[in-house]
């Protein structure tokens, strides 16, 4: 993206409205200072009501009216919701999962590998993209939407998986060996004996299948990107709306939930390769539960994909009843996204919809389509961003800490759960959120993309599966002066989810100065007075290596073992946290680790959040350092100015070291260092 | 029904007994003062053990012995449980639902539209009805039993639904428009593209499908009624055993549960059209949980269907372990039914059954088939009713309050739940039970049967879907002096479950003097000091209209909005209750509303319940006004006599204004005004 | 088994290891004092990688190395996990259940009656047994593993069941009568009308089906035993690994759970007939939840099968995270098994497995395959057992109390649950555990194997179904001086689960001096001040029979009824406990009953457990009486020596009457009476 403007806009579906009010919509968007709309994804049956019969009336009208209004357009390929005629043409388009063939109705339930689907999808994409690419105000394309593998266990998927295994392992002996198939008599001597994967209970093979399916989904996106690339101009971007593991709450039939963790059904790093700019949607609790953690976590993941700014293609307006924003919260949301490095935000969506499944996923406008407090707050945001112009755009970060994520470990731990109430993503969020609350910023990077040299501190939450190659890199990282902080269940198994058959942590006992071959449900075990939960690995610090026992378990029998260790190794230092406990305990470890890594930690912490970056400014001849101060609380409070001198670019007020910054409820400041 | 006797009897299935004890049964029934038995429904395989081979031995014997004993008989068509030979003949008789084809075994699991079923059902009905109609003591027929649509998604049902849609909408464009099918690409351009309904996630279309299926079930009953009418005498009635939404508790495999709310799978109003007298079964918690609310609520619904007396074709004897009645409770049950307008009660059932699914749905007799405390209490009831003769029969009500129910709104709110823990029926019961506990009697009427002019006060619990025609009637009702009390989620959507795209409450902002375009999960919000739960609509009273804010929310941000409003409009008054909270708050509103409607409310309230009516008595030349005083408590208490003078017709005791009426545990009085 | 050694060993699967470390394994086993391994069950795909192509490499190697090391071998037939080629050959091998055809992957999911399976199973059994039977150190064979019917509703099972019914009942009339099929129109007039059993909701017929399926599973084991018998030497035993109803906890996908109650899917008594020695696996909570109850209960069941010593073919090492043993617990487990009459124990398993479903069902060795505290404790056990030589072997019991179990009643009560939170096995465990905690030892015997004359006291927990023949035996038992203690829901129904249609308890009112025809959910009911839960049968003691009311209900209305009765009848005495309440109340009843039966009860109770037996010792010329003192607590305590004089054969210490025995945490003593 070449623009130095912040994108501010909304998803827009006039197709879904029963009344024609496009002029009024555009007027209200302009009044809100919006400069972009995203259209067309999910409207296949409107665009192509019968096979190869196209009706682009809505496209025409939106393009024309936005052009007049000076509003840019992102065109989405409409493939993520297939039209009824396509399913009638080939019922096998519906994805087959462990539960059987999906029935038509819901979105995102087709077989990515079905040839009929691919053929008709290609056709509609070519028509739509060629039709729209010529418009100057079409600034980019979104391919598909929230793509995942949809639990596909269909024949195409299973055949492709068998081909993949055969190419990878060549002989059945190697396959048997890799996954331990002799167990319960699952080994094969003939590739044709490979059974229907749907009954498989081998966690390693199933994790491999998950990994393979993630690749299939990423390949599908790359295929769409190639088609779009045949038509798009150089200045038009290709993006995708990457989403996260959804945490459900509320009624089963409703969609209540929020962006919680690493996506299990698509590898973001793999998928992002075909994009020119990363895009995402981020939803999060609001009202009393608004913490900013999801906005930061998801933003850090998406920014790290290309180490660049990204688009928030969907963010919440009013959404569910739980999230009707308090006054000030919508504005706080918006600045929180920018603070993570977003290049702009688009609401989902403009109008609340009057029919269909998402009737109560409310947009900026309520069902009455008039003004309302949320829309009015959006207007305030729009006006501020118009005024601030390019001052906030393209903020870059240069984080010294990285938190490593891995959806292969996620899959493995679904088969070998740490506890019924503790998932992989719970551990990730426990370690991430503790950093976030301390105002230690980090990148969040897929293990496959990790370059240890770029960082001073590496954090591994439950990095269960890891290759020996990467283990050696981590060893070298610490030896060379890095600080490694690892949680329980890290470094346990290899890439086939085979537990390493020697002393744990595999290859890193010397690094951590510790080994472990027992673990337990904590029961009444405590650590520094706090209840240990879910797991306690019984750590044996190496007495000869001078390993520091940061905390011993408090328990009649487990008291003989350490729960947290610290070991200086080479020029660096390695921490191992053998159990799950309060975030406060973890934060104490982080404090020490940050000191080891010479990373300074602000004096204030959540609910006062600081997120920083640098804007390189050729015009002004110098980089500008910005610090977003985000206040996630309804209480007023003060925080000390952490800088020699800074100016809040939102209202021009200046602060010096020693000044107290007064924060109203749900407040936002953007301090520029002077 | 011409009789002026109260029916008192039981369901009777000698077919289910392994021993022949019909003489003893009849003797014990007579000893209990019983005058009626209901037979034969569910005994198809006994009546017709092989196709077209009939064996009416049990019918013969029961008819003969009841005739001798002077006991009347209601004959049930046996269709609600199909015989094995019929399923062998055509396996497609078993209903197909979202979960697949039902398997044979349970009752009420056949496809109402299957032609083989219809053909064989017609045959057995014709045989049985023609065989029995001639007996003088056969007083009527029950068609089928607790009929519903059984979740039918079979081919006949789907084809019929498509035909119905096509006839209704003619073009696919209108269909798309009505339900917003463009959403997620569900629109069709060709009727043949209409997909299998089983995958549909469009709440509006699915609510339409539910409505259609309710009509199919009602049509099936009408079809049976037509067949029976070919044989029955004029003095023989046709009834049906209408049941309610069942509230499950206890073990999954057991049938523990009770009659809770509006029936989702049959529209009572539609179904009752073919009946000459309404019939029902009502089950309810007992022991410490006995409140009388279900007896009143279900009775009010059934009485309102034909604005006439009705039969309780099944009521509980000992039933489940939870319901073994305390001394006095069985008698209290019996009088409670009469107090709602029942023309009689029949126990389900006579003997506890020794095998099969309902072994522990215990009858009047325990498995030992001897006497027991429950049977003995039935004897007391029977003796009292013999003595009271016709004095209690055909009591009519002339209620001034109506509570409006709508199973279309029920369906819609299953797709768009207010909260995972608050169903449509929860709101209905919240509003009904509050009236009941205050001793404000009401009719409970289907929205399609509502005649506003008949009432002074209309109550709408979550009347989510409503036509503009009815909205105008409600507006007129208030303007003309009526009192309207509406809860949250009323007047939101049209008959296709499309949210009205303008200011809410649609067409009634002027009437309520209020509008609303935001709502929220209440969180910590309170109202008059009570916790608000599930939903808080943020009401904007119209300042210029003089709307009264009966209660403002208590909350830092939502405190700007009203939670309950009152507005004088024309000659009437409209109340809007925007949130769910304690019944006490609702009762305060009712108290004001009743005053507005000039309805007087007794000084006492639950557990002392008063239910009243009038018996027109040509013989005595004057109407008699009866007030049942029903005491739902194990504590003794006193209540002031609310009448100038009255006599308890059960024991002849007289009370004057100012007297205290002494109530024993689970006591019953029937005061006749003097 | 001829040996006078205690078997001490482990399951051993070198097939599952990715590295060859058999020499090291054998070395470590020897160091632990092990003398036996169990091999080969579940390794079919390794033994026969293609149909009829055998590869016995692992067998050869294990047999050779164990022979050298002087370790005995139990060879398991490998049939309980079928190889992929077999499912490819005939997909119908996978069991069909109510949920459809099982998918390949998990063990124990095949159709026991499938002819292809039987043919290939026979082939591999013949190959393996003939191959190994000649080795001197192969001491016996285990047939299959944890065999059950696997919920089989496939065509072979259903056809066999129909044949069985037809042979049993001859006419459909008798079938209809036995199960009350007229109910809900389920009766048939033609055997061909018998419907698919999968939809059946007749609890009696379904319990019959369960019983039939248990017989099919037992017949399958007998078939394997016959094949093995063709090859085995006389000194080689045939055993089977009988398991128990599993109580699940923890994560759904994990196998966390433990041996809880009577097995629903196999009748142990029936299955054990073909075995020469009974075998079992017993798993139980550990750490703070270790009580010893499961070890005692399951051991008492298995010992009672053949009234003989038995093998614990699997017992837990480290197992799940919940069960990592505290120091001393593994040793306590081991002696607990011997105290119940086990002839030896084998750990499941030797190595923790590095791949596959049971990766975290940890063995003696952790995944690092080195030493660890659990292995080290096993070494201590092994050394002690080596030293004690034959002194502990073949201990016999001669219990005077029997607790009667019945998996037909279990099935019936699944259809007619006492309460959603109280299963048949909960009642069994309530009654067993109370005995156990009081140190009253008992046999636990299947109703079909009960010989009342052998005992002085019979206990029947929820013996719901019972034949009249057995009822008469119980009557005679009491008359002749026996003590009968029966719980609620005993003696209710006949062998077809028909409730007896006369006064309950059927045929035993005279014996108990009590009758009952009402029962209730207890609500607030108490008994001797304790809350009654789940059920209260309202007992009517016979006033003329002098029946003692041991406890009346405490309740406004139910206070008129007794909850527990005692009745002297003939020379004996019968107790009836009509409700579920605290174990303390039950123990008071047991105390009286034991006094009636002249059984003395020790002064100490759980957590100090005493389990006793006699070792007949021809050599020494006299029997030796041993008392295991097992201390299930982490607290130290003292217990009085209950014997005139005794010596702890573990450490030689002697105690006299009046001495206090000092017990350390998780302590074990074996007192030999002097």
Automatic annotation (TrEMBL), chains A, B, C:
Residues 12-388 form the Glycoside hydrolase family 42 N-terminal domain. It comes from Mediterraneibacter catenae. One of its GO terms (cellular component) is beta-galactosidase complex. CDD domains: A4_beta-galactosidase_middle_domain. Pfam families: Glyco_hydro_42, Glyco_hydro_42M. GO terms for biological process: carbohydrate metabolic process. It catalyses: Hydrolysis of terminal non-reducing beta-D-galactose residues in beta-D-galactosides. This is beta-galactosidase. Its EC number is 3.2.1.23. Belongs to the glycosyl hydrolase 42 family. Residues 400-599 form the Beta-galactosidase trimerisation domain. It comes from the Bacteria. GO terms for molecular function: beta-galactosidase activity; metal ion binding.
């Amino acid at each position: 993206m070449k623009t130095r403007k912040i994108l501010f806009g909304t998803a827009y579906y006039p197709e879904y409205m029963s009344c024609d009010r496009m002029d009024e919509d555009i007027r209200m968007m302009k009044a809100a200072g919006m400069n972009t709309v995203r259209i067309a994804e999910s409207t296949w049956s409107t665009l192509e009501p019968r096979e190869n019969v196209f009706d682009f009336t809505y496209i025409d009208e939106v393009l024309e009216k936005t052009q007049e209004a000076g509003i840019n357009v992102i065109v989405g390929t409409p493939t993520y919701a297939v039209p009824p005629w396509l399913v009638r043409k080939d019922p096998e388009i519906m994805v087959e999962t462990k539960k059987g063939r999906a029935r038509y109705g819901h979105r995102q339930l087709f077989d990515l590998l079905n040839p009929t689907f691919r053929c008709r999808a290609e056709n509609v994409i070519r028509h739509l993209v060629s039709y729209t690419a010529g418009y100057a105000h079409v600034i980019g394309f979104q391919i598909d939407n929230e793509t995942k593998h949809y639990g596909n266990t269909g024949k195409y998927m299973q055949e492709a998986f068998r081909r993949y295994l055969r190419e990878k392992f060549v002989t059945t002996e190697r396959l048997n060996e890799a996954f331990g198939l002799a167990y319960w008599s699952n080994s094969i001597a003939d590739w044709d004996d490979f059974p229907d994967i749907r009954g498989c209970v081998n966690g390693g093979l199933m994790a491999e299948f998950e990994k393979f399916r993630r690749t299939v989904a990423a390949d599908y996106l790359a295929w769409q990107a190639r088609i779009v690339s045949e038509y798009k101009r150089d200045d038009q971007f290709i993006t995708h709306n990457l989403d996260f593991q959804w945490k459900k709450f509320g009624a089963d039939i409703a969609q209540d939930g929020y962006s919680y963790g690493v996506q299990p059904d698509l590898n973001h790093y793999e998928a992002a390769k075909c994009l020119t700019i990363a895009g995402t949607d981020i939803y999060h609790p609001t009202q009393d539960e608004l913490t900013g953690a999801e906005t930061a976590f998801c933003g850090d993941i998406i920014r790290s994909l290309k180490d660049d700014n990204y688009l928030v293609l969907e963010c919440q307006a009013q959404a569910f009843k739980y999230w009707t924003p308090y006054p000030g919260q919508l504005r706080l949301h918006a600045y929180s996204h920018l603070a993570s490095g977003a290049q702009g935000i688009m609401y989902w969506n403009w109008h609340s919809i009057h029919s269909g499944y998402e009737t109560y996923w409310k947009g900026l406008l309520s069902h009455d389509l008039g003004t309302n407090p949320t829309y009015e707050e959006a207007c305030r945001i729009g006006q501020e961003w118009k005024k601030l112009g390019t001052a906030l755009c393209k903020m870059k970060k240069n984080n010294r800490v990285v938190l490593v994520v891995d959806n292969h470990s996620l899959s493995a731990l679904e088969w070998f759960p740490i506890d019924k109430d503790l998932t992989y993503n719970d551990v990730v969020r426990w370690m991430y959120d503790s950093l976030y609350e301390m105002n230690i910023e980090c990148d969040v990077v897929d293990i496959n993309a990790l370059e240890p040299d770029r960082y001073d501190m590496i954090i591994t939450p439950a990095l269960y599966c890891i290759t020996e190659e990467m283990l050696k890199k981590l060893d070298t990282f610490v030896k060379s002066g890095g600080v490694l902080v690892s949680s329980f269940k890290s470094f346990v198994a290899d890439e086939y989810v085979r537990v390493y058959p020697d002393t744990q942590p595999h290859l890193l006992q010397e690094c951590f100065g510790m080994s472990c071959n027992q673990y337990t449900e904590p029961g009444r075990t405590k650590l520094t007075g706090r209840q240990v939960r879910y797991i306690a690995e019984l750590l044996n610090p190496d007495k000869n290596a001078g390993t520091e026992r940061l905390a011993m378990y408090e328990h009649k029998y487990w008291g003989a073992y350490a729960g947290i260790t610290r070991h200086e190794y080479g020029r660096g230092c390695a921490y191992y946290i053998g159990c799950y406990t309060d975030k406060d305990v973890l934060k104490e470890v982080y404090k020490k680790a940050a000191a080891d890594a010479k990373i300074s930690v602000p004096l204030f912490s959540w609910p006062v959040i600081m997120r920083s970056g640098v804007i390189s400014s050729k015009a002004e001849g110098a980089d500008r350092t910005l610090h977003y101060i985000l206040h996630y609380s309804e209480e007023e409070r003060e925080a000390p100015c952490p800088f020699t001198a800074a100016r809040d670019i939102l209202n021009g007020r200046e602060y010096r070291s020693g000044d107290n910054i007064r924060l109203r409820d749900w407040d936002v400041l953007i301090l520029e260092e002077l």
